[in-house]
Each structure stands twice: as C-alpha cells, then as structure tokens.
Design brief:
With about 200 residues, this protein is an all-alpha fold. About 80% of the residues lie in helices and about 0% in strands. It has eight helices and no strands. It has helices spanning about 1-25, 30-45, 50-90, 95-110, 110-115, 125-130, 135-165, 170-195. Helix 1 (about 1-25) crosses helix 3 (about 50-90).
Length: about 200
C-alpha cells in the first residue's frame, strides 16, 4: 500500500501534486499532509526535488483556496445563502459557520489568511469569508501563497524525516495510510449525517 501511494505521487509528478493540492483545497479527497508528506518521502528517495515539489504544491494550494475566495467575492452574502442552503449538506457547511468565519476574519484582519494556513480545520474555510469581505485579490493570493509555502515546506521536511525511519517502520505505513483515509471518510460521513440547515 505504501509503495503504491508513493509511486502514485512520483508518477503524477509535480503537475500531479499541484492538481491534488488544488483539489484538496476545493473538496478534500486526500489531505495535504498526506500528499506533501509522501512528496517528502519521494524527495528523500531522490525521485523528486524539494523546490519544484514545494512550488507545485504551493501553487496548487493557492489556486484551490482562490476558488473559494472567488465564490465569496463574486456571489456575495445574498446570492451565497441559497447555495449554502441547497448544497451545504454535501459541502458540510451551514450558514451559521459562514457567518462565524466571516466575523472571525473581520475581527482579526487580513493576516489571518496567512496564519490559518497552519490550521487543519480552517485553512480552506477562511478563503470564503475573505472573498465575502472583498479582500484585495493580490493580497489574498500573496498571503495564501506565503502561508501555504511555509506549511508545505514543513510537510516536505517531515516526510524526509519520516523516510529516514521508513525501513524500521515499513510494515506500519500501509495501515497508517488506510486508517488516515478511513478517518477522513468517517469524519465526512459524520458531518453529512449531522448537517442541519440554518438559513
């Protein structure tokens, strides 16, 4: 299992990593920790290089977050509410959360876009209120790129560090990956099942 995942990332190359990172930020099928962490293992094995991997992953992260920013910026509050009401269950998002995240963004200012890149739960969510607040596009992209770049660099280095222990824990990698993916599916299913409209 572990070799299959590593090979999948390696064969997809930098474009594949960028695509997965963009997709992860629009609708998270595989967490960035797994994508960039496995990329770090590939760097340690010599099949990928640090800087191209970092740049590709960071561009992908930025584009995925920009998609949510544009949704907020173009639709605005009035037109977004019916979208959240209709599709919120599958996005696991309700209007109260949108309003809460927007208030949080407005309270803490634009630097929160940078800081939230280090939060597993809010790094994508904060893009929507940034768009609803009509943050300048270039500022959003700059803060997002910088924050995502730091986070992705840490994930790559973590993957390289993990690779140094790969032989001793080789038999555990497959189960760890399966458990991680299983927890993601369960968390999504739990959110869908418990979702209630509030708008």
């Amino acid at each position: 299992m572990d070799e299959w995942i590593i090979r999948l990332i390696e064969q997809g190359g930098y474009w594949g990593v960028g695509f997965l990172m963009a997709l992860e930020n629009v609708f998270p099928p595989i967490p960035s920790e797994l994508i960039m962490g496995v990329g770090g293992i590939a760097v340690a094995r010599g099949t990928m290089q640090f800087w191209p991997l970092l740049i590709a992953g960071t561009i992908g992260s930025t584009l995925g977050n920009y998609a949510w920013f544009l949704v907020g910026d173009r639709l605005g509050y009035m037109r977004l509410r019916p979208v959240v009401h209709r599709w919120g269950r599958w996005l696991t998002l309700n209007w109260r959360e949108v309003e809460g995240a927007t208030a949080f963004f407005q309270r803490h200012g634009q630097w929160i876009v940078f800081v939230m890149r280090f939060s597993p739960l809010l790094r994508t969510m904060i893009s929507l209120p940034a768009g609803l607040s009509h943050m300048r596009h270039w500022k959003f992209l700059a803060f997002t790129f910088a924050g995502a770049g730091v986070w992705n660099a840490l994930l790559i280095v973590g993957g390289q560090w993990f690779a140094s222990y790969l032989k001793s824990v080789h038999h555990l990698i497959g189960p760890i990956l399966w458990v991680t993916l299983g927890l993601i599916v369960l968390a999504y299913a739990w959110r869908v099942a418990r979702w209630k409209p509030d708008c």
